[in-house]
Design brief:
The chain is mainly alpha-helical. The chain has helices at residues 2-21, 33-40, 44-56, 75-99, 102-115, 119-122, 136-143, 147-153, 156-167, 174-190, 194-222, 228-234; strands at 60-63, 67-70. It has twelve helices and two strands; from the N terminus they run αααββααααααααα.
Length: 252
């Protein structure tokens, strides 16, 4: 029974994680065990194991007297994460240009060739990357050969970032732009130009951050009851009590 239960837990874990990343289970949404068990066709045991693992990845949060909900980051939290990514992933790209083998660089090119086949990307609707070795950013961090960077960027932070990277890629023009930026970063790494690789990666993530900021401003502008405080927040002048980013506001 134990191996079967573990297999079910693995499957449900992957399916729920994908649903969270793709926004099918929206930030802040309450997770009903009964509904999830019916939706994924499993008993409570494997489901609870999967939910515990998702809590461990900080994709779910347990609130006393409320229950389990999908994590929801505030606008300032998300911008702070992207500022950290801009600096650290820029460094990772510089180091990758120094340390990645020729075979690893070719592997990055092959990965982008696979990404290009995605119907969503071809249609300019979104740019989805599976986790780990199927993720362009993950591969570059690993290629930096820096364990501290790997721990910082590929641990808990990595899984929370994936959620918002996909959901904010659902922007007109952004999927193709992000894909082209990936190609230019690989070209700099292949040329062993660490300085250029860092500049391009920082610019790439900075562009994604600006996309998030623009979406937030648009959301506030379109809200009929937007307050002066919210408008200030959208301009980057508000404090830490700004509302959380939701799926409906649809980056890299």
């Amino acid at each position: 029974m134990a191996p079967e239960a573990l297999t079910l837990a693995d499957r449900v874990f992957q399916e729920i994680q994908s649903a969270i990343v793709r926004g099918e289970l929206k930030p802040g949404a309450k997770m009903s065990e009964a509904e999830l068990a019916a939706r994924y066709g499993v008993s409570r045991g494997p489901l609870r194991e999967a939910l515990r693992r998702l809590e461990g990845r900080k994709l779910l949060t347990r609130i006393p007297h409320v229950g389990v909900r999908v994590v929801s980051l505030s606008f300032p939290e998300l911008i702070h994460i992207y500022q950290v990514r801009e600096a650290l992933e820029g460094l990772a790209a510089r180091l990758a240009a120094e340390h990645m083998s020729r075979e690893e660089v070719q592997g990055l090119k092959a990965l982008l060739a696979e990404h290009e086949k995605q119907a969503e990307l071809q249609q300019g609707r979104a740019y989805y990357q599976e986790e780990g070795d199927f993720d362009f950013h993950y591969r570059i961090v690993q290629g930096s050969r820096n364990e501290v960077l790997s721990q910082m960027l590929c641990g808990e932070l990595y899984h929370r970032v994936r959620l918002y990277r996909y959901q904010f890629s659902v922007t007109e023009g952004r999927p193709h732009k992000a894909f082209g930026e990936h190609h230019r970063i690989i070209e700099a790494i292949e040329a062993r130009d660490g300085e250029m690789a860092e500049i391009l990666m920082r610019r790439h993530i900075g562009s994604a951050r600006k996309n998030i900021e623009a979406h937030f401003r648009d959301h506030i502008a379109q809200a009929p009851d937007a307050s002066a405080h919210e408008a200030a927040a959208a301009r980057g002048k508000g404090r830490g009590d700004r509302p959380a980013i939701q799926r409906g506001e649809d980056n890299e």
